[in-house]
Amino acid sequence: MRLSLRHFPCQSRTFGMRNTSGRGLRPDALGTFDTVLMAVAGSAPAYSLAATTAVLVGAVGFAAPAALLYCALPMLGIVLAYGRLGRLDVNAGAAYSWVGRTLHPFLGFLCGWALVVSATLFMVAGSLPAGSLTLALFDPELAEGTWPATAVGAAWFTVMLLVVLGGVRLSVRAQLVVSGVELVLLLLFVLGAVVRGGAAAAFDWSWLGFGHFDGVSGFASGALIAAFYYWGWDVTGNLSEETRDGRRTAGLSALVGVGVVFLLFEAFTIAVNVVLTTEQITARGDADTLALLGDAVWPGIGGKLLVVAVMLSTVATLETTLIQVTRTLFAMGRDRTVPAAFGRVHRRWNTPWVAVAVVGGVALALFVASNALGSVGDVLSGAVGAMGLQIAFYYGLAGLAAVVAYRRLLLSSVRDFLLGGVWPMAGAAFMLWIFYESLAELSTASLVVGLGGLATGLIPMIWYWRRGSSYYRPAKLDAVRALAVETDVPYGDAPRQHRPAADETLATDF
């Protein structure tokens, strides 16, 4: 049998994919289209553009399209890593489980904790703009107030909390409506910008090169912000236990989803360079960037329509973020690395209701606390940098974990070496480099939030390690051992040639 990354076991009691379908979450609830939709919604195209375009342009100027391009390439390496790890271990905890079973349980726990902290920060960074954007549709002056924006944002968050609590099928149905309208509006404005042509500058291919970056530090700053654009596609990994043929579908859906949002991000940042000046973008602020672009492309109603798109995108990604953090906490509770109550599942809705309730309570408390920090913009600006730091941390370790898990198979073919080794390793190195470089670039507030949030995870980690949680004594993920167990071949004697079986075709419902 020829060992290849294309052939993985269906399940194994020791080394292969863990069969978790009987542990509470609803199995086979989602198909390929559903999870692609979740991947796109998780990256929140309109929200990401509105929330961070001004920050990105302020950091790198005309190099914004290049920052998104050069961050997308290593990000695809992380997508490949997630797909390969998911084939060995279908787990709602995703990187939390995979890194723990390949590198070290402590690192795995910190990966999961980084996601929990960054997702919790997003409850503030996302819900407050959702409130202000909703108010802006009716009364722009009222939208400037932090308290009204907090109240409306909390209402949106509560609605999404109830949707997530109601089950994964309800979540997908809501996502289809919300994200569907958002994507239609974005595509219409891309076409409108193309027809309108340039007002601020003519398109230049140098925008996709390195010439507009201010040295290595400028490139690192832009890449850290660009990583925030793509974050969220990995919700497919957290949903793998609830997906049909999750070991294949989750990876495919993430790949397609990242491709879709990459094209949207590039189209819009190029449109911003063409239609708006840098002074216009930075003067109006984050949440107004797309509204300004909408007015320029489609005077009168354009700004309002793009505000609607951003609002819907924010609401959509609140849902996927809630899914990520609650599924991660569910996996942690199941493994007894946090209180076991987090692993409880509602009998009717098959959702981790305790995790949903706790996340909801903490997030609503943060809404109130955020008023003491200043304006909506101040809260958002500090949170974005902190989230990018944590994203780079757990993405980087996940990429490294994939290479370690498949290290014995990488020389099977050139394809396996490049797509299973070089690309994920390059993605991991890039993410960890961003993490290191950004330590000198971020504000003190962002560093305190980012590193301090990670440090708080040491408390439950040490506590449950000392209490003997089995998570800290894992069965290692090893693709060769998993393949040997599946084919009943003694470890070390796995044959070198293999022809794909009939059931190894890629399952899809497209």
From TrEMBL:
This is Amino acid permease. Gene3D superfamilies: Amino acid/polyamine transporter I. GO terms for molecular function: transmembrane transporter activity. It holds the Pfam family AA_permease_2. The chain crosses the membrane at residues 36-61, 67-85, 106-125, 145-164, 176-195, 207-231, 252-276, 296-318, 353-373, 379-405, 417-436, 442-465. InterPro entries: AA/rel_permease1, APC_superfamily. GO terms for cellular component: plasma membrane. It comes from Streptomyces roseolilacinus. The keyword Transmembrane applies. Keywords: Cell membrane, Membrane, Transmembrane, Transmembrane helix. It is a multi-pass membrane protein. It is found in: Cell membrane.
